[in-house]
Amino acid sequence: MVSMKSNSHIKSYNKLSDLYKNENVGNTILQDADFTIHRMETVHQKPVTSPVFRANYFSFILVKSGKSFYTIDEHKFYTKPNTLYFTNPGHLKSFGIEDVVHGFIITSSEEYLKKYINSTVFDEFEFLLTEIVPPCFLDKERFEELHHLAAQIIEEQNKNAALRHKIVSSLFMVFLLKVKEFLMRDDSFKIEHGRDSQIVSRFKKDLESTFRSDTIKNSDLQVAAFAEAQQLHPAYFSTVVKSKTGKSANHWIQDKTIIEAQALLAKSSTPIKEIAYRLGFNEPTHFSKFFKKQTGKTPNQYRNL
Q1: Cβ–Cβ < 8 Å for 61, 84
Q2: Facing residues of 55 across strands?
Q3: Are 22 and 11 in contact (CB under 8 A)?
Q4: How far is residue 199's CA from residue 203's CA, in Å, rounded to a whole number?
């Protein structure tokens, strides 16, 4: 395991394709969107062990057969046939394929979830914010349900159809609902209850809840406000978030603000001035400058893409 105190050299990846290309841990894959699905036996045709890395995306892995392991932060888990596991952004991760695994790997960015699943996706699928989830060993019937859905998703993903994204995202929604159903009734589903993990998990939920509010004040999006919600000193709170996720609390807040802004710009005709106020900016000009600094485009340019 890699010590959390000495991980400054570890690379971060926003896309699965970049991880495979730069670390030579699997066959080169194409990625033209913030959602990917691949057959494990296609991308990993021989045993391999990855270096430790930080992934800034959600991953879902279905292991039908084969032998593998994965690590999250300082935890190591082994898989077996009919295994489901998922990880969310920000953790230190690694994996090893010991015997060629047959199954699927699905990845998604938060932006994709907000755009194609639901802008309030974490209300429906709160389990996605869980810090560390051990692998779930499913019975054959439940596993085959997920495996069949994944096979449908990859079939539609590989088509060059006009409604491909809508069809794929609809099937992925069903996949997430099935995962939620299985986790809710699976006695082996346990959450890591370490104090630092609890702090980060609560922060993510509080951040999500803040953006679901009808009115957001600028003070609501300050690190001190989130620390106070957990009765923690801001410096300690910030240290925990940074050490557990690799990103500062302020970085998380800024990223979330951009994701919400992009969703509002893409999915509604709400005036930019109203979007600015809704996201806690006191002046629309401040929002425009912030948005351009983060994305390289003005809100109007982004909306007209």
Answers
A1: yes
A2: 13
A3: yes
A4: 6
Q: Which residue has tokens 């389990």?
A: 127
Q: Return d(Cα 161, Cα 167) in angstroms, integer.
A: 9
> What percentage of the chain exceeds 70 in pLDDT?
93
pLDDT of 214 reads 77
Tokens of 162: 């006009």
As its CATH architecture, domain 195-303 has Orthogonal Bundle (1.10)
The pLDDT tens digits for 74-84 are 789 999 999 99
pLDDT above 60: residue 6: no
Range(s) within the chain of domains with CATH label 2.60.120.280 = 12-185
- CATH for the stretch 12-185: 2.60.120.280
CA-CA distances (angstroms) from residue 209 to 196, 204, 221, 256? 20, 9, 11, 11
H-helix or E-strand spanning residue 96 = strand 92-108
187 C-beta neighbours (distance < 10 Å), count: 5
Q: Could you please report the per-residue DSSP string of 176-218? A: HHHHHHHHHH-TT------HHHHHHHHHHHHHHHHHHSS---G
In the chain, what is the straight-line distance between the N-terminal and C-terminal CA atoms, in Å? Answer: 44
Largest CA distance in the chain: 57
What pLDDT is attached to residue 276? 92
Each residue of 153-187: pLDDT tens digit? 999 998 888 898 899 999 999 999 999 988 877 66
- Specify which residues 58 forms β-bridges with: 108
Whether the CB-CB separation of 196 and 236 falls below 8 Å is answered with no
163-167, 203-207, 211-215: least confident range: 211-215
